[in-house]
């Protein structure tokens, strides 16, 4: 890690030493008041682990696409600037002189408890690289704070009347709710020279935290998060900085998920503002846009980041400032990782910095004879050759030169990879061929949310199993389901023709129960039945969860069955209405003690095949086994060598499991759809890999005796099928 050195001064302020001689020229070119802002610096922390509670940097040219600096490692050691060993919630401000920067952070390690900190850290810099710092313990520094429990999320604003920098933050005393206070910093920004005064409290008597003041059109807009009596982001407005704030009692976040850490910044050369916030329960950040700071539109589809931020702020910066940051904390690996072409599957870029190789997986149909990876071009970075290149003749050698660093040459490969088949994180895929539309449809779990906390389902359509169209959300638990609002997992679907009309019955998991929704089309809209279909454990079952439904219609009898269970496999006939089961016919048919979940049933040549997953979806060894039966309700025979899908270490494929199976209509041609850890980064994520998964398709083949051949999970995937 390339970090600045820190020295302790007699007054206990740490001073970051001047970095390297090559950067002195940049310090001399510090931004003047006349140089226009042309980029952005995002300052953030990354998580609740102590090593993640530190100051990180990312940069952007447009305010939407951000790239981490220093390989997303801390740019300052938390151990050296804090009293707890960790810092959170960084806020950065440009001084009125245009070239001095002020940063404040929460001095806290969350592992010690949410009521464990009493301090903040004040930092100051003239170049965004070298910082002086000082710890301010509010409880020790000011009287009447004996019952102070926490000091959170400080920020700074310049008071033009007082001609001083005002620091404001939230504090909680005893059983009182959190309130926002303020105090003025001294001229050196090393201490608070006035006692904290109350700036704002929530009129609803709930907690009031994460304040962010934005001055616009003669008004001070105080954005904050309220808790206790409704949670979310609101704002209060005043004509004066330190008093008179009147609550505008409406929520401003554009999501129903829990949020915190509102941060507002103005786009360069624009009247637009960005309100961003940390959707912390989902491991996401959301960006919204506004001109009036009253109405906000989600712009997430324009935003990209190669990192996962928590509660941070964005500062507009100049070209020379960005060049200075790039020279200090950017490198060739970061440049190559930054490829922005819409044809590239960005989650799956492989950068080998040891052997100086880059692999760019691209979507089906990409013109590799004339292909531009579109590497992010920041000030101080020279890429040669650039633009459209011919990758059909083999890898291209591309040189990256960064000011103050030696040039680096990479061998760049680009090839079509049809796995994963969907863009983004999805898991537990179910597939359907709809006779009504003559198309294939994928119904996955929406993944990428911390601890599987997604609350909606989407579907995707395709004519050929390769080219997929996002058909949007088909069922939102929060809006559409009364009995289960969380954990939207592992759906399944069937098409039935009833009285000459096609109907689609969609079985899904919500809050560890199973429900059913009905639609007239495979893309919905789906209407929930109004109650859980499976809400409790079958008789005799003590462990596991009521999840992972699978629906199968026996081609011999046209009777439909529902299968479900985690830790056990249950089956019951569906009644004619398809939204209820014969509860008297529930049967436990768990194939063996290693059965975990993800039942899939299909019929071929007189045999009923049962597939399932074992181990844990967070394990790299998550895998698929199979058995067969003469009946859709068992008994299941388990053949030798029944492991048919498992990780491929040589190709970096891990966590393969929870599958479905599709037959091409009127052909003995079969495919398996499954999820894996996101590649290549999933294996480095620890248990978080279990909710950062992606959907793949590979061919399913049989031996002459009907046994299933072992499936080799691939990166290339399949080619488009023909009917």
From TrEMBL:
Q: Which residues form the signal peptide?
A: 1-27
Report a single Gene Ontology molecular function: hydrolase activity, hydrolyzing O-glycosyl compounds
UniProt keyword Hydrolase, yes or no: yes
A Pfam family hit: Glyco_hydro_43
List GO BP terms, alphabetically: xylan catabolic process
Which controlled-vocabulary keywords does the entry list? Carbohydrate metabolism, Glycosidase, Hydrolase, Polysaccharide degradation, Signal, Xylan degradation
InterPro entries reported in the protein's UniProt record: Glyco_hydro_43 (IPR006710), Glyco_hydro_beta-prop_sf (IPR023296), Glycosyl_Hydrlase_43_Enz (IPR052176)
Q: Which CDD domains match?
A: GH43_Bt3655-like, GH43_BT3675-like
Name the PANTHER family for this protein: ENDO-1,4-BETA-XYLANASE, PUTATIVE (AFU_ORTHOLOGUE AFUA_2G04480)-RELATED
Recorded family membership: Belongs to the glycosyl hydrolase 43 family.
Its name, as the record gives it, is Beta-xylosidase
Where does this protein come from, organism-wise? Answer: Pedobacter jejuensis
Q: What is the lineage of its organism?
A: Bacteria, Pseudomonadati, Bacteroidota, Sphingobacteriia, Sphingobacteriales
């Amino acid at each position: 890690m390339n970090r600045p050195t820190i020295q302790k001064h007699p007054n206990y302020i740490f001073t970051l030493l001047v970095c390297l001689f090559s950067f002195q020229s940049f310090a001399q070119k510090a931004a003047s008041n006349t140089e226009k802002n042309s980029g952005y610096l995002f300052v953030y922390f990354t998580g609740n682990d102590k090593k993640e509670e530190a100051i990180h940097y990312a940069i952007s040219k447009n305010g939407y696409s951000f790239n981490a600096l220093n390989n997303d490692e801390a740019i300052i050691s938390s151990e050296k600037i804090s009293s707890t060993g960790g810092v959170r919630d960084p806020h950065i401000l440009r001084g009125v002189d245009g070239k001095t920067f002020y940063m404040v952070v929460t001095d806290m390690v969350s592992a010690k408890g949410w009521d464990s900190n009493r301090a903040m850290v004040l930092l100051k810099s003239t170049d965004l690289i070298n910082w002086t710092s000082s710890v301010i313990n509010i409880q020790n520094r000011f009287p009447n704070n004996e019952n102070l429990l926490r000091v959170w999320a400080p920020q700074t604003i310049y008071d033009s009347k007082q001609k001083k920098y005002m620091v404001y933050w939230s504090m909680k005393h005893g059983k009182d709710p959190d309130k926002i206070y303020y105090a003025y910093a001294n001229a050196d920004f090393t201490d608070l020279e006035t006692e904290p005064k109350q700036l704002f409290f929530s009129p609803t008597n709930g907690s009031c935290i994460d304040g962010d003041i934005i001055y616009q059109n003669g008004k001070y807009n105080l954005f904050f998060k309220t808790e206790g009596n409704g949670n979310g982001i609101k704002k209060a407005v005043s004509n004066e900085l330190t008093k008179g704030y009147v609550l505008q009692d409406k929520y401003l976040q554009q999501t129903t998920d829990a949020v915190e850490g509102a941060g507002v910044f103005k786009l360069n050369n624009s009247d637009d503002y960005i309100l961003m916030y940390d959707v912390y329960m989902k491991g996401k950040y959301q960006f919204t846009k506004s001109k009036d700071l009253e109405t906000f539109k989600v712009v997430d589809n324009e935003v990209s980041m190669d990192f996962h931020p928590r509660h941070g702020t964005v500062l507009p910066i100049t070209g020379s400032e960005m060049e200075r940051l790039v020279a200090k904390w950017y490198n060739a690996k970061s440049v190559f990782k930054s490829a922005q072409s819409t044809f590239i599957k960005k989650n799956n870029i492989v950068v080998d910095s040891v052997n100086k190789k880059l692999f760019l997986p691209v979507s089906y149909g990409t013109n590799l004879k004339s292909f531009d990876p579109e590497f992010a071009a920041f000030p101080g970075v020279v890429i040669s050759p650039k633009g459209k290149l011919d990758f059909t003749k083999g890898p291209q050698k591309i040189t990256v030169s960064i000011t103050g660093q030696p040039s680096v040459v990479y061998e760049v490969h680009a090839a079509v990879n049809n796995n994963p088949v969907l863009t983004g994180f999805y898991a537990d895929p179910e597939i359907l061929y709809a006779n009504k539309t003559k198309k294939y449809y994928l119904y996955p779990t929406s993944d990428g949310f911390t601890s599987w906390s997604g609350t909606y389902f989407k579907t995707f359509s395709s004519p050929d199993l390769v080219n997929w169209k996002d058909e949007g959300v088909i069922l939102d638990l929060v809006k559409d389901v009364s009995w289960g609002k969380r954990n939207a997992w592992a759906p399944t679907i069937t098409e039935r023709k009833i009285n000459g009309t096609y109907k689609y019955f969609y079985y899904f998991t919500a809050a560890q129960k199973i429900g059913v929704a009905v639609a007239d089309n495979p893309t919905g809209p789906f209407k929930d039945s109004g109650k859980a279909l499976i809400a409790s454990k079958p008789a005799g079952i003590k462990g596991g969860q009521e999840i992972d439904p699978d629906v199968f219609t026996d081609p011999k009898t046209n009777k439909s069955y529902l299968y479900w269970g985690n830790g056990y496999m249950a089956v019951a006939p569906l009644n004619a209405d398809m939204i209820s089961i014969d509860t008297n016919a529930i049967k436990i048919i768990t194939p063996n003690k290693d059965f975990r979940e993800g039942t899939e049933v299909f019929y071929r040549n007189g045999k009923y095949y049962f597939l399932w997953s074992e181990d844990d979806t967070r394990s790299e060894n998550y895998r698929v086994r199979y058995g067969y039966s003469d009946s859709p309700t068992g008994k299941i025979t388990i053949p030798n060598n029944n492991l048919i899908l498992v990780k491929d270490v040589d190709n970096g494929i891990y966590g393969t499991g929870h599958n479905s199976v599709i037959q091409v209509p009127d052909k003995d041609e079969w495919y398996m759809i499954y999820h894996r850890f996101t590649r290549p980064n999933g294996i480095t994520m620890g248990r978080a890999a279990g909710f950062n998964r992606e959907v793949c398709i590979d061919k399913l083949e049989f031996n002459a005796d009907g046994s299933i051949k072992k499936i080799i999970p691939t990166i290339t995937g399949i080619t488009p099928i023909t009917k």
